[in-house]
Specification:
Distance between the termini: 59 Å
Number of helices: 5
Structural class: alpha+beta
CATH topology: Rossmann fold
Order of helices and strands: HHHEEHEHE
Strand content: 15-25%
CATH architecture: 3-Layer(aba) Sandwich
């Protein structure tokens, strides 16, 4: 007789959302590389293709990589080291993407705080 697992009431412990699914159904082909390595691959294969389009500005993979490298160096200059956790309060614009990639380049955890505008 199979005993049923007693539920704790905490979804993060009970993992009730995973019942009946297999690993590859939950995780379809996920590359084992960081976002920075993915960006480098995109930069090498198509440096002048659009990476980000927002409002009327189009940013290429080369520009995105360059801007994230500049900010990564600035983070290092401020004393942010591997394993640190930083929070960045920027709307979902280009600068928010650059800050996330720059933090990942330095193996820093980046928590994005998106300000909400209530009229």
């Amino acid at each position: 007789m199979v005993e049923e697992k007693k539920l704790t009431g905490y979804p993060s412990i009970d993992k009730s959302h995973l019942n009946g699914t297999k690993y590859f159904e939950r995780h379809p082909i996920i590359p084992n590389m960081s976002i920075v390595n993915v960006m480098k691959l995109l930069w090498m294969s198509c440096p002048n293709d659009p990476a980000v389009i927002f409002f009327d500005k189009v940013v290429t993979h080369s520009e995105l990589l360059k801007d994230s490298l500049v900010l990564a160096k600035a983070f290092k200059g401020l004393g942010v080291r591997k394993g640190d956790i930083i929070s960045v309060s920027i709307p979902n614009f280009y600068q928010g993407i650059v800050s996330f990639i720059a933090a990942n380049r330095n193996t820093v955890r980046c928590i994005r705080i998106v300000p909400a505008h209530i009229d």
